[in-house]
């Protein structure tokens, strides 16, 4: 049941009363003790494999990163893990996958080390489709032979090969195999990355999917790949260990499909009865490369028939269709203030934090105790200074009132030397280049 407005209460009292810090059973994945999750974040810190060309494996640094962010009964969603060489796409360098035995063993070590924290750890499975273009080791595929055109997205890109029915079958098989690998490695469940213009999203969007067979040409047909994929993976590992991520209002990787509300509503109608552990949505306001304002005005122009000029597209229609039996995670632009109401009002069950979790390993504690957040360092999201992969990755400290172990003390000392920059309210929502100068590197 939604609870009353708690915003005037002191932080700890608010936390005691709010649903944000109440337990939640996440299907068969596990029991959460609170509703704050680590969003999937690609950080490109894998170790190059010396066994398989073009692959990377997780190592100690991932163990440290996830352990720092783990809490008892807290949900951790892994970075996007490519399911094959082809899935990696040309752009995913230094990204550890989960398709070789070496990668599976690597993740097993990470998961084993994280498990004692009591966190619920889910692996996100990824296929880039057309996003990275062809490589020497594999060709890029997509729903259709439509390339990324915009220079903002690094275009014009390579024209991908349109997937044959055989390709579709094989690719779903790759997802299934990697889902099994993830469960065998000890993950509590898997999430399919169905947003951000990657392969599943390339089937959903009408500007990318130009197929005239059963996988294109209508809303129902464009949904088919995602529905079949979910069914195949869920039946391999159990539907209650399965989650799907969607970005119905995303633009990233040139996803400019029409009839978005209808498309994703119909998809949700198909997913609702399946007993999946959750569906994870990205909020319309968030975009990887556009500022919030630019994103919203572009959405407004594109979707003038879908929502009124005084309102933004919301996730509420999807929540209503999915109902309370399919838990909903939301992500995109949440901070220490706006995260409470969305759970307390019943609009979502769990909030996933991305950027602020990079720079605040003890984010859950900070929210619970009403502490300020530290700014993240955008230039170190995907790259690092030569030989220093820890920078911007595992060198952010806990709040000084929340430092217990010797290791935490050392990280704090180092962090203080560099200078701790506190985030200003609203700062995280704007993503234009202006901020790059503000961020220390
Ligand atoms: C550095 C970075 C890497 C990301 N990698 C992924 C990813 O691997 N998979 C995914 O589904 N989303 C990815 N995202 C999106 C985040 O999961 C999240 O939805 C987004 O950052 C919005 O949440 P925030 O406002 O709390 O940062 C990434 C975002 C960032 C900033």
TrEMBL record:
Coiled-coil ranges (or none): none
Pfam name, any one: Oxidored_FMN
PANTHER family: HYPOTHETICAL OXIDOREDUCTASE (EUROFUNG) (PTHR22893:SF93), NADH OXIDOREDUCTASE-RELATED (PTHR22893)
Protein name listed in UniProt: NADH:flavin oxidoreductase/NADH oxidase N-terminal domain-containing protein
Positions of the NADH:flavin oxidoreductase/NADH oxidase N-terminal domain: 20-372
Single GO MF descriptor: FMN binding
Top-level division of the source organism's lineage: Eukaryota
InterPro entries in alphabetical order: Aldolase_TIM (IPR013785), OxRdtase_FMN_N (IPR001155), Oye-like (IPR045247)
């Amino acid at each position: 049941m939604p609870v009353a407005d708690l915003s005037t209460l002191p932080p700890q009292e608010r936390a005691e009363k709010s649903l944000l810090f109440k337990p939640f059973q996440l299907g068969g994945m596990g029991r959460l003790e609170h509703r704050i999750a680590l969003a999937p974040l690609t950080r490109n810190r894998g170790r190059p494999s010396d066994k398989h060309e073009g692959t990377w494996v997780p190592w100690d640094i991932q163990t440290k990163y996830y352990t720092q962010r783990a809490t008892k009964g807290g949900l951790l969603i892994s970075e996007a893990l490519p399911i094959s060489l082809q899935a990696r796409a040309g752009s995913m360098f230094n990204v550890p996958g989960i398709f070789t035995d070496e990668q599976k063993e690597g993740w097993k070590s990470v998961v084993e080390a994280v498990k004692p924290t009591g966190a619920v750890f889910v692996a996100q499975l990824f296929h880039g489709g057309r996003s990275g273009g062809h490589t020497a080791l594999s060709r890029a595929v997509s729903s259709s032979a439509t390339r990324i055109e915009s220079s903002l997205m690094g275009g014009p890109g390579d024209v991908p090969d349109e997937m044959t029915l055989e390709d579709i079958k094989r690719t779903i098989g790759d997802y299934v195999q990697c889902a099994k690998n993830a469960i065998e490695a000890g993950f509590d469940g898997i999430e399919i990355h169905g947003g951000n213009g990657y392969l599943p999203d390339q089937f959903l969007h009408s500007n990318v999917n130009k197929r005239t067979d059963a996988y294109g040409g209508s809303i129902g047909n464009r949904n088919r790949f995602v529905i079949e994929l979910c069914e195949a993976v869920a039946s391999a590992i159990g539907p209650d260990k399965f989650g799907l991520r969607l970005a119905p209002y995303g633009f990233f990787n040139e996803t400019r499909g029409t009839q978005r509300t209808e498309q994703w509503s119909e998809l949700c109608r198909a997913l609702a009865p399946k007993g999946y552990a959750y569906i994870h949505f990205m909020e319309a306001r968030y975009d990887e490369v556009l500022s919030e304002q630019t994103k919203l005005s572009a959405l407004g122009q594109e979707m003038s028939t879908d929502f009124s000029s005084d309102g933004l597209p919301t996730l509420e229609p999807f929540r209503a269709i999915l109902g309370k039996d399919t838990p909903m995670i939301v992500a995109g632009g949440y901070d220490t203030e706006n995260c409470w109401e969305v759970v307390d009002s019943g609009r979502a069950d769990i909030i996933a934090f991305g950027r602020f979790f990079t720079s605040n390993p003890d984010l859950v504690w900070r929210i619970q105790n009403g502490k300020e957040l530290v700014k993240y360092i955008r230039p170190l999201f995907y790259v690092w200074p030569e030989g220093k992969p820890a920078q911007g990755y595992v060198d952010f400290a806990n709040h000084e009132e929340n430092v217990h172990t010797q290791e935490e003390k050392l990280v704090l000392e180092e962090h203080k030397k560099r200078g701790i920059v506190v985030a200003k309210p609203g700062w995280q929502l704007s993503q234009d280049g202006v901020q790059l100068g503000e961020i220390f590197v």
